[in-house]
Write a structure and sequence with these properties.
Radius of gyration: 22 Å
Structural class: mainly alpha
Number of strands: 0
Distance between the termini: 55 Å
Strand content: under 5%
Oligomer: single chain
Order of helices and strands: HHHHHHHHHHHHHHHHHH
Length: 442
């Protein structure tokens, strides 16, 4: 007859296997959906990069107005990011992520009816407000479903969605721009078709997602228990170092949060500086059609996917997250600095090199605050880091548009991105991670 000690030993030996099986099922079920959601999300966010010349011709939107409108998305995003993620905790991931996707799809579709600078500004702001909460909501979702050891790889897979979107958005948007009929221009059809794709997908999201592991009927009872226990144990470890209930406002007194905000701001600044102006750089390389511009635009993002997975694998094997993030930021700085020399072809090649760095840095960054934050206030603070960081998406296109209209060149902006990435590479070594890395907020 089996003794209690033997039974306990057998249970202990089986527990890691059950947990691993649960993690594998979770990844197989939710990661593909999140990648697809991120692809359509990112396309709706950045597709205006392909219609800059069309907006100038058909609506009369100049370079500075284009840059400001592109950036206003991130103002709406920043204002509503934290409230949205707090509401996600209240209503659950299933309902709230579905709502976010439906509203951003409708706002993206409405971009087809831009007829002045004012409507351009308003609709870009509303698109940002509608989308607010999606990205940090997914990150928070990972903290509720995956152990800390699995989140880095999950983040790399999820963030590959933005790189895949950047690869696909060029050919897709370029192809849709060829449509001309029904009294609408190609750029209007592009906004309608890409926006409605998001609206249609949200129906599948509602039926596929669960808010918590306890709701997942596709996991066995043992698997639900194992993953829930793993998450609870990690939180208990954090609570040993932060025993009292703290508010997000109190935690913001911790300088580490400001460090996280600055690092992510620097990364976003470079990503969106390249995203919104790369099609214009490509057009200067020769007489290309919209489809050809889109195909060229895919190249740096295709390279960046390989880089993201390579850096994630290296960071998992040789553990020093700050060091790998700093290396990626130095690569981004070198590429952006090199892009200020030579002709448009040389600038394009240099940005391809920079993309290796700034996209890898984006995936390497998030495990740092994830490991640092108390799960009780993680949703709000992750949203805050993301919203402040994403203001780089406002600063970069606005500054680039102003510089090009005033000087006829964006070299000053590219140099600024190089310097910012280099500074961030140094600051990242001040960032701490892990349950015992932070002091309790005063």
């Amino acid at each position: 007859m089996e003794t209690p000690q033997q039974a306990a030993s057998a249970t202990g030996a089986a527990a890691p296997t059950v947990l691993q099986e649960a993690v594998a099922k979770i990844k197989q079920r939710v990661l593909p959906l999140f990648v697809i959601m991120f692809i359509v999300n990112y396309i709706d966010r950045v597709n205006i990069g392909f219609v800059r010349s069309h907006l100038a011709t058909d609506v009369g939107i100049g370079t500075a107005a284009y840059g400001l409108g592109a950036g206003l998305f991130f103002v709406g995003y920043a204002i509503f990011e934290v409230p949205s993620n707090l509401l996600l905790q209240r209503f659950g991931a299933k309902a709230w992520l579905t709502r976010i996707m439906a509203t951003w799809g409708l706002a993206a579709t409405a971009m087809a009816f831009v007829n002045s600078e004012t409507t351009f500004y308003v609709l870009r702001f509303l698109l940002g407000a509608a989308e607010a909460g999606f990205f940090p909501g997914v990150i928070y979702y990972f903290t509720q479903w995956l152990p800390a050891s699995e989140r880095g790889r999950a983040m790399a897979i999820f963030l590959s969605g933005s790189a895949l979107a950047s690869i696909l958005s060029g050919p897709i948007s370029g192809g849709l721009l060829q449509i001309d009929g029904g009294g609408l221009h190609g750029w209007q059809w592009m906004f309608i078709i890409e926006g409605m794709a998001s609206v249609l997908l949200c129906g599948f999201v509602w039926f596929w997602l669960d808010s918590l592991p306890a709701d997942a009927k596709w996991l066995t009872a043992q698997e639900r228990s194992a993953i829930t226990r793993a998450i609870v144990d990690e939180q208990a470890e954090r609570m040993k170092h932060k025993p009292a209930q703290v508010s997000a406002l109190q935690l913001l007194r911790d300088p580490q949060i400001l460090i996280f905000c600055f690092i992510y701001f620097s990364i976003s600044l470079t990503i969106y500086g390249a995203t919104f102006w790369l099609p214009s750089i490509i057009r200067k390389m020769g007489s290309f059609s919209d489809l050809q511009v889109g195909l060229f635009n895919s190249i740096p993002w295709l390279i960046s996917i390989v880089a993201m997975y390579a850096f994630a694998a290296l960071a998992a094997r040789f553990r020093h997250q700050q060091g790998w993030a700093a290396t990626a930021l130095v690569i981004a700085a070198a590429g952006m600095f090199a892009s200020t020399f030579g002709n448009s072809v040389y600038a394009f090649v240099s940005i391809c090199f920079a993309a290796v760095g700034f996209k890898a840095a984006s995936s390497l960054f998030w495990p740092l605050p994830q490991a640092y934050l108390d799960a009780r206030i993680a949703a709000g603070v992750i949203a805050l880091i993301n919203s402040i960081g994403n203001l780089g998406g406002f600063v970069a296109p606005t500054a680039f548009g102003f510089l090009e209209q005033r000087t006829g060149s964006i070299q000053g902006g590219l140099m600024g991105l190089a310097i910012t990435s280099l500074v961030a590479a140094g600051v990242v070594f001040l960032a701490r991670s892990g349950p015992g890395a932070s002091r309790r907020p005063r």
